[in-house]
Amino acid sequence: METILGLCIGIGLSAACGFRVFVPLLVMSVASILGLFEPMKGFEWLSMPAVCIGLAIATVCEIAAYYIPWVDNALDTISTPAAMIAGTIATMAVSSGEMSQFASWAAAIIVGGGTATAVQMSTVAARGVSTATTGGVANPILSTGEWIGAAVLSVMAFLVPFFVVILVIAIVIWLVRRIRQKRTVQVDTPL
């Protein structure tokens, strides 16, 4: 049961990494410093105040950069592999000690990295559609929703992990449908 709980928390945190790379890591660090979360062996660095301050600065910089027109689209090229790595780290840091080291890393890469990448690719596609349809005017609204979503998912991953897994699946399905609808409308619209 502990393994399943760890994977559910990891999925929630990984999905949040897909929205914003540093927000879930900051939430994990704050929770660890407050004693609400104990990271797995090898991830104790999350409990260091200097790491928490560094993650806070990185979070503010990342959120601010997404409000700068055209920088947000350029940042997506860097954020995609970074989200995969952060999702893997987040999942590994909450995994249980019941699994072997190999199984833990495999699950973290597949589940955590895969979830973060799927969400990140959905946000990249949504930003592309937003840029194409509004000339980037709506991108700050999208950015606001993404960082708020990352913060809410990160906190909820610790509080209600099973619900978060269902929520993540629903969000991904909704984003995919929404993007397909936008693309269909663009293709069907005569020039």
Automatic annotation (TrEMBL):
<feature type="transmembrane region" description="Helical">
    <location>
        <begin position="147"/>
        <end position="176"/>
    </location>
</feature>
<feature type="transmembrane region" description="Helical">
    <location>
        <begin position="49"/>
        <end position="68"/>
    </location>
</feature>
<feature type="transmembrane region" description="Helical">
    <location>
        <begin position="102"/>
        <end position="127"/>
    </location>
</feature>
<keyword id="KW-0812">Transmembrane</keyword>
<keyword id="KW-0472">Membrane</keyword>
<dbReference type="InterPro" id="IPR025196">
    <property type="entry name" value="DUF4126"/>
</dbReference>
<dbReference type="Pfam" id="PF13548">
    <property type="entry name" value="DUF4126"/>
</dbReference>
<feature type="transmembrane region" description="Helical">
    <location>
        <begin position="74"/>
        <end position="95"/>
    </location>
</feature>
<feature type="domain" description="DUF4126">
    <location>
        <begin position="7"/>
        <end position="178"/>
    </location>
</feature>
<protein>
    <recommendedName>
        <fullName>DUF4126 domain-containing protein</fullName>
    </recommendedName>
</protein>
<feature type="transmembrane region" description="Helical">
    <location>
        <begin position="12"/>
        <end position="37"/>
    </location>
</feature>
<keyword id="KW-1133">Transmembrane helix</keyword>
